[in-house]
Amino acid sequence: MLFYIVFAVVVAFGLTYRRAVVFCVLWTLAGVLAPVAGLPLLSTLAQASYSPYFVAGIAMYLMYRFGQSFLLWGIVVFSWLLAQYQLSGTIRVYQQWLPQHLSWTVAVAIMTLCFGLVLAAALGLFDRITWKWLTTAGALTYPLYLIHQEIGITMIHWLRGHLAPAPTLAVVVATVLIAAWLLHRIVEKPLSGLLKRRLTTAFDRLTEADAAAFGGARRGE
């Protein structure tokens, strides 16, 4: 939510390629400085544990939209390196609550795989894949992203005393996927259409009001 609020400021000033790049650079600097600056507000805004993933995602989209550049590659690579460093702190936090050891090497390998897959998509390496079910899978990614952690962790705590790890994982994955599909069909899809129509109407009225005000000012001259 914080990311959307901060990025909304960029959009409010007019979203351009240059401003998106500047945003990536400034957020990266904030993420590097926040852990050592001792400023709670900066730490809250920077979200250093997660910022490398958002910054890399923005840079990869810019590659997809405008083409590759040395600068964008530099942002992606630096974000990947910074994410490796930040993983150490994330692992320490989760290790406090888990009985088994969490491997930094395995975590970095999974993170690198995720970077590679998104980057491959941004570079068009998957453009030939046109399976119809991917449209539905893509539609589920956002609601799944929103609910998987809370529902998943809660279910794991409920089920781990009754089921082995593999069945527990299967039940949890199936449940969150079904929940994400229901959220998309019942909430997201209907409301997004309504919200789009209302916002379009509101922006049209603002545009008409601005045009009328401009015309009045011109006549006053």
Task: Describe what you observe in this structure.
The protein has 221 residues and is mainly α. Helix content is 83%, strand content 0%. It is globular, with a radius of gyration of 22 Å. The mean pLDDT is 85.
Gyration radius from CA atoms, angstroms: 22 Å
How large is the share of residues in beta strands? under 5%
Helix content: over 70%
How many H/I helical runs? Answer: 8
**How many individual β-strands?**
0
For the biggest sheet, the summary is: none
What is the approximate shape? globular
Supply database-style keywords.
8 helices, globular
Question: What's the structural blueprint in terms of helices and strands?
Answer:
Elements: H1 2-12, H2 17-37, H3 40-46, H4 51-66, H5 70-95, H6 104-122, H7 133-159, H8 165-220
Helix pairs in contact: 2-3, 2-4, 2-5, 4-5, 4-6, 5-6, 7-8
Describe the structure concisely.
The protein is mainly α. The model has no long low-confidence stretch (mean pLDDT 85).
